[in-house]
Specification:
Number of strands: 4
Shape: globular
Radius of gyration: 23 Å
Structural class: mainly alpha
Largest sheet: 2 strands, antiparallel
Oligomer: single chain
Distance between the termini: 24 Å
Number of helices: 19
Helix content: 55-70%
Amino acid sequence: MIGVEGHIRRSVARARTFWAAFLLCLATSSLWAIATPVFSVPDENAHVAKAVAQVRGDFLGRVEAGHSGRVVDLPPGYDYNHAVQCYIFVERQSADCPAKFGDGSGARTFDTWVATYNPIYYEIVGWPSCLLSGESGVRAMRLMSAVLGSILVALAAQALLARRTERWAPTAVLGLLMPIPAYFIGSVNPQGVEIAAGAAFFAVTLRLLQRRRDEGPGTPIGLWLAATLAGAFLVNARAIGPLWLLVLTALAATVVGWRWLGRLLSQRRTWPWLGGLGVASVFSLVWTLATGAAAGQASVGDVPLVGASPVTGFITMLRATDSWLVQWFGVFGWLDTILPIGAYLIPGLCLGLLVVLAAVSSRRGAWAVITTTLVCVFVPAIVQGAQISRTGLIWQGRYGVVLYLALPMIASLALSWWRHGGLDALSVRLTWFVAVGVGIFSVLSFAYTVRRFWLGIPSDGNPGIGTWMPPIHPVILIAAFTFVTGIAVVAVGLCGTRVARTADVIR
């Protein structure tokens, strides 16, 4: 009877974690979706054109002379005028532009460079364009993306907080509280789903290996379902997805132990789930190869280092590691909205504390965080270096977030799994410190970015240009974001306090 009651309590607790994480992520990503102008997210204009065309049956577009990308037709209410992005790369300029998306002043075709991308994401988020048009249609598609991404983030949080005795586990959600995941999840861009799916897949894979190591062969179906769902979205978000799946699996096995991966995969009960993940991966690879989605050739002058050697690309990537880190923390717009430099010290300090404490907690903790750090630094450099001759230097920090989120997860779980007893007393205070720090940074990021699009950012004594208004007044949006973020901070802090008390009682 006690066992049944305990199982019910654990199930209720897991469900509560899932729904709390889902609602908080949905709220923050939806606020980003409402507060920022359409097409203010990198490449969103191309992704919207792809989604709008695809749900009307045009999956690949067409090749036309004089166009570098494939051309798709846009329905009424979705005509595109480049003037709607008058503020891009002009920080003083607000989003008050002479043209509005879908106002009839634009072209009914669009030269999209993402026409051959995997269709799954666009099929899910594109259908609201059949009901709404113009900016309303784009924001509706953003909200669909927010729902999908929030489900995956909730699976990640549920896996990370699954054990009652891991006093450091609440700090593992550091990366999920950062503004960049919510910013992209609340946009029409498969980058958001890739980030969320990567976080969920890695978190669940760590739990699968840990359970196999600590509790034997039995594995809950829910974990395998979550791993398969997250993995399927990860491999199909972008062409590089299958590589991220392999890298994250290898990293999890390296941290927990390769023998546990072998024993996990040797169980027959896991084969149906692996089969489902295999089918998703095969579809991704076949689509990429058949459509040439990863085979484009950039022209000299389009981007830097076209035709450069892999060694040059690799070294250039390593030298720019600090730039990729800053972009992970928070660079918004088309990389044209950079926060005051001092703001980046907040997440840097939070992440640095976790990593340093994990490194000094034990030899295995040091091995785990060092290995993860090397993966975060060198894998992107290898990937970009290998294709730089064809693509040029196109890398951005957002491309690596799917790997970077592994670092706070590994650091936090390493402190819980192989902790030094003397550090236990710090867990509650550090959890609150990290939660408050990341919360403050998220609010600062949101407020600064909204201000940039609302009024423009003055520079050199010159005022901003124009006044743009989102559907809800910016002050109300900033207040709402602050409130939701405050709830998330308190929830993480209280979770850390509760887990520490439970761990003390059980110990």
